[in-house]
Amino acid sequence: MKRPLNVMMLSWEYPPRVIGGISPHVFFLSKSLAKNGVKVHVVTCDFPDAPAHEVIDGVEVYRIDSYKNPSPDFATWVYLMNLNMQKEAAAIAAKLPDEIDVFHAHDWLVATAGIGLKHVFRKPLLVTMHSTEIGRRDGLHTTTEKMINETEAWLTYEAWRVVCCSDYMMQHVKWAFGLPNDKLVMVPNGVNPHVYDGLEKQDLTAFRRTFALPEEKIILYVGRLVYEKGIHILINAVPKVLEKVNAKFVIVGSGYMKEQLSNIVKSMGLEHKVLFTGFVEEENLPKLQKCADVSVVPSLFEPFGIVALEAMAAKSPIVVSDTGGLSEIVDHDQSGIKAYPNNADSLAWGITKILLDENFRNRVRENAYKKILEKYDWNKIAQQTRHVYEGILGEYSKSFWA
Predict the structure, then answer these.
(1) What contacts 324, CB < 8 A, 6 or more positions away?
(2) What percent of the chain lies above the pLDDT cut of 70?
(3) In which band, very low, low, confident or very high, does the pLDDT at 177 lie, cut at 50, 70 and 90?
(4) I want to staple 66 with a disulfide (CB 3.0 to 4.6 A). Which of 81, 122, 124, 181 is the partner?
(5) Which residues touch 137 (CB under 8 Å, ≥6 apart)?
(6) Is residue 303's pLDDT more than 90?
(7) Domain contains 402
(8) Which has the higher per-residue pLDDT, 250 or 303?
(9) What φ, ψ does residue 359 adopt, rounded to 5°?
(10) What domain range includes position 212?
(11) Is 197 exposed, middle or buried (0-12, 13-18, 19+ CB in 10 A)?
C-alpha cells in the first residue's frame, strides 16, 4: 500500500502563538491537509504553557525552544532561532518512521532552517510567501530591511515552487525577486466560517455593550497598528464619518503607531468615539466581528487580507482599500465596497454608504458570505496544496536529486 504524503511545515507562529496571519493560515491549512490524507508535522516556536509536542486534529505539532540565546535585536533572534529550529527539526525528521517528502516553509522568518533542512535531507522545499519586505516598507531603507529582502530572495531561489495567496502577490513576488512564471503558483488563503456558527443565536447584546452604546454603530478595525495597514487613514476618516452617523470606532490590535494614533484622536477631542482595545481574546474576536455594523481594512499594502475574509464569514459588511489581494477578494458594490487607497474621504464615503443603506448592507453581506463558501473553503485549498506537493514530487523523482 502506498504511504501517505509526509510533509514538514516550518512556521515561527502557530496557535496559541499568534502574531499575524501566518498562524491561522498554518493552523487551518495543516488540519485540512490532514483530513485530505497528508501526514503533516508542524515545527514552530515555543509559547508559555503550550506543550512541546501535541497532536491537533491529526497534525503533529512540535514547539521548539526559541529563546536559548540572548539576542541584541530581532534580526539576530530570528537567525539564532532558525539555527535551533533546523537542529530540532532535523532530529525530529530523522526519527520519523517515514521520511519527509517535502519541507514547506512559511516566510523569511524560517528561511535558514527551511533551506538547511532541504540540503541535509536532499528533499524539495516549498515556500509560501505571505508578504515581502519591499512591499511592507514601500522600498528598502535600512540595513535590517535590506537583510530581510536578501533572505527572502535566497528563500525563493532555493524553493522548488513559491506559493502566493493572490494573483497580485504572484506578480509582486515575480517582480521583487526576478522569478520565472513556472516557479510561482497561486493558492488562495482561506477562512473557517464555522467559527461564527451559533453566534446569531447567542444574545450578544450584553457583550456588545462593553464596546459601544446601543445607539452607536460599531465600525471595526482588526490588525496591527503599523503604517502599511493604513490605520492612520481610518483615524483621519473618523470625523468625516461622525458628521453623518453616530458610531463607535473599535480598534483591535497593537503596534508601534498606537501612541501616535491615540494622540491624533485626543487632538480631535474624540476619545469617547474611538476605543483602542489592544489584543482581544481568541474566543471574543468572532463575537466582536459578528457585532460589527461594518468592518474596515484600509491597508496600503496587502498581499491577501485574511481579516477581510473573516469579516465576510462573520457576515459583517466590509469596506477595503482597492489594493493588492483585497482587490481580488471584494467585488465592488457586490460583496463590499472598495475605497481608494490612502484616501480618508473615500474610506469615509464607503463606511457611511454601508451604514446608511440597510438594503445595500444586507445584500453585500449575503453576497460576501456566498463567495466565502464558494472560493475560500479550507478543504478546497488543502486539495489545491496537495496537488502542488504531488506535482513537486513528480518532478523531484525525475531529477538528479532523487
Answers:
(1) 166, 168, 169, 172, 299, 301, 302, 303, 304, 305
(2) 99
(3) very high
(4) 81
(5) 145, 228
(6) no
(7) no
(8) 250
(9) -60, -45
(10) 193-375
(11) exposed
Residues 137, 168: one domain? yes
Indicate the average pLDDT of the chain. 91
Please say if the pLDDT value at position 254 is more than 70: yes
Return d(Cα 311, Cα 220) in angstroms, integer: 9
The count of structural domains within the chain is 2
Which pTM value belongs to this model? 0.81
The confidence score (pLDDT) of residue 176 equals 93
Are 14 and 55 contained in the same domain? yes
Q: Are residues 166 and 308 in the same domain?
A: no
